[in-house]
Target: Anhydro-N-acetylmuramic acid kinase
Amino acid sequence: MNSSLQRLYQIVQQASRRIIGLMSGTSLDGLDVALCRLHGHGPATRLELEQFATVPYDDEVRRRIRQVFAGGSTGHVSLEYLTLLNPWIGRLHADMVLDCLRHWQVAPADVDLVASHGQTVYHAPAHQHQHPDFLGQNATLQLGDGDQLAVRTGIITLSDFRQKHIAAGGEGAPLAAYGDYLLLSSPDEERLLLNLGGIANFTYLPRAGQASNAAFSTDTGPGNTLLDATVRTHFPGLPYDEDGRLAAAGTVSEPLLHALLDHPFFAASLPKTTGPELFGAAYLQQAQESSATQMLGPEDLLATLAQLSARGVAQAVRQAFGPNAELAVYMSGGGAHNPALRNALQQQLPGCRFATTEVLGVQPDAKEAILFAVLANEAVAGQPVSIGAGRQRVPAVSMGKISWPD
Ligand SMILES: Nc1ncnc2c1ncn2[C@@H]1O[C@H](COP(=O)(O)OP(=O)(O)OP(=O)(O)O)[C@@H](O)[C@H]1O
Ligand SMILES: CC(=O)N[C@H]1[C@@H]2OC[C@@H](O2)[C@@H](O)[C@@H]1O[C@H](C)C(=O)O
Model:
């Protein structure tokens, strides 16, 4: 038997597994590295987060990824550049993992698996691309080859999780439903797990044991992506609007907000996914032109964009749960640190109670990286995760491709 396969067979039989979950999202702020100890599998999964770090991307890393990210700033991408980036990101992520392990004084041999999301560079759900050659087909592309991670770290690696979801009828995202369902379902509370990353999304969890086919997750529109881009344009050197201070100094422009919300994405049925391909500079520019708000100051622009992210979430919540939704909302992602966003959300959803996932024992910044560790755990030791027999575009599948170190 292949010795790595033998090692995997042994890992599968352990009562718990030590898995590193990796996520680098649409904000391009860095690589989230979560060293997890996962006991058991399926609904019995228990998580211990042993270590967590966000290894920041420097300007050069961001520059390289932006050459292709969401189609690149010019709309033209070099196929050679894209090809070169794939193994390069894999090596970059491997070196970041090895640095973290050194810092945490954990030997790579003491880690069972790496679960790597990779860097999304393009997300093309059917409703968004409408390319005449591929009508009705969903596609998504994450770079950072898993073989590079496996060979460089010596740890068996699972990667490229989204392709199976698409093969089984999903849009390749959001995958959060699977991890949230396994880790955060409650017997006595209906929950909304709201992630405010570059793109905002939520998972709805009914009370455990009740109508489990009602669980689903959906993107709701921009989270921080337009806010960050606006800060970069108007305040060079600042990565984002820290603690929403700039937005707090501005006033919401109703005409611009109206024009931004006029996009069909917001009225489309749930669940749905999106990305910066849609919610980028062109979308904002068009809305400013149609509402004659090109002269708006940057603070007013930021106040309006924070309101837009909150309205996207609120609209999806109302669409799913009616106008007076009363849910326990647990926030995660970088936007949970932004009071401008949080306040706008509370105003929009007055019936809901807000907290962060911290109170559920899951560090809000680590939640997405943990998700991939949980998915890898299921892929090797569990069953396809079944949430409502595949309804609500949550196919019952296991996800992730396996790379051997040798
Ligand atoms: N203190 C803060 N004040 C305001 N905004 C913040 C703060 N901390 C983080 N953020 C926002 O959070 C962003 C990073 O969020 P996060 O790491 O969740 O995104 P991501 O994982 O890349 O996104 P996605 O979930 O879409 O993949 C930053 O770019 C910034 O906009
Ligand atoms: C294609 C892609 O990378 N999508 C991300 C992105 O970031 C947030 C939102 O858009 C979400 O749909 C997804 O990530 C999380 C981890 C998910 O799949 O649940």
Summary: The two ends are 13 Å apart (CA to CA). The CA atoms of residues 29 and 59 lie 10 Å apart. The mean pLDDT is 95.
